[in-house]
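U., I forgot to send this yesterday:
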Amino acid sequence: MRGEAAPVANRGMITVSIMLANIMQGVDNTIANVALPHIQGSLSASQDEVAWVLTSYIVCAAIMMPLTGWLAGRFGIKHIFLVSVAGFTAASALCGASTSLEMLVLCRGLQGICGAGLIPLSQATLLQINPPERHGQAMAVFGIGTIIGPISGPLLGGWLTDNYSWRWIFYVNLPVGVLCGLGIIIFIRQSRIVHREAFDAFGFLTLSLAVGAAQVMLDRGELKDWFHSTEIWIEATVAALSFYLLVVHTATTSGRSFVNRDLLKSPNFVAGTIMMFAVGLIMSATLALLPTMMEQLMDYPVFTTGLVTAPRAVGTMIAMFVVARLVNRIDNRLLILIGFLITAFAMWQMTDFSLLMDPEPVVVSGLIQGFGLGCTFVPLNILALSMLPRHILTQGTAIRSLMRNLGGSIGISTMVATLAENTQIVHSRLVERLYPGNPLLHTRSFPAPYSLTVPHGIAALNAEVTRQAAMVAYINDFKVMMLIALLALPLLLLLRVSPSNVGGLATEPAAADD
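Result:
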């Protein structure tokens, strides 16, 4: 996607426009998490239903991401970039104006479709307007924007929700989107159309159906009692059949398939992509669970929640700087091992959370987890992509981004469903001991307002039991994510180092993927 370089006089304004798009997309990845409890109350949604606000965005962005390169090559970077920014801005306005959960989920899906191309197109444009000798500096600037978004997202989301309304977490994109769009129109020149190759519509359709049906099944499974429901059986059948057709089509097609077969021949790519799936699952599921835990169980103000969860991104930023100095000096597999072990340690710390703790354990574990995950991004990219032929490198990067996003959406759905189920199970076990004949209920350890004899006392007791059961369920989820981090480690045995290719891939794919 190389075109004629833009005039040097416009380089600064183009960079500003690109950074606005980069930051806007990065902020939107995290800004909605802290507002979820307020959205849930405003739209009368259950906890598993409100999770669709996150998963619809992630899934739609994941499906569209591999398509971005083809669209940019067919219609030019400027046109697709402008459509993406305009669509993202319009979808943000519709999200803020949503009057029902269904409308909000659909608009978030549209936001994900339009936002999928913002990061890869921003990076491609930045590389276009800078000569090769300045690409390292350009990627450093790009990385700053990538880091600013996730750090400021929780803080901005908490402040807007606390002082105005959750709707403003979407409306805040409007002025940024307008400025970014004007910058694209005025300063960015249209790139040369680089290819007219055919698009594998069947492969794209089967992949989209498989991912979409599987995601809906996971989102609605707990509500519909899983496979006791006809709807879940239909969704599972559609997902399985679509995935089967995708595999058969990929294996037998003579032309260019949507998923290149050569990608599956690389053990590094397959193992690295599975590990990136695990990274996406842990990262997104944790960010979805913590705000509801702190706001609903511990009565934290939404701004405090944003403030407490922000250090996670700071930990990632610190890890990026550390890894940048070490990535070409030591075995990248060691960096990945250290990153996953630190992540597992952070999840183990989170299993000690309690309803009586102060914010410090959340801050410390978040900082450690962010550092651990940050240690894995660049080394995983290098090892997974270093042995791929150059002609499939772009698709390999897109597929890895797809799998990381799918890990995030599946992680949110499964952890929220597990949370709801475990809360019910633990609640039923706790109430087994709450009967009038239990002598412990007639001691000073059972103070007012709890009672088994008056309605308001029973209601207060049930609320506290539910609160305690939910805390246990959150801890169980953290244990599961700790095990996922540890179970991913044997995949390191499949990774092989290619020293001759490490240097050339240390920066660009990492930035594209993250």
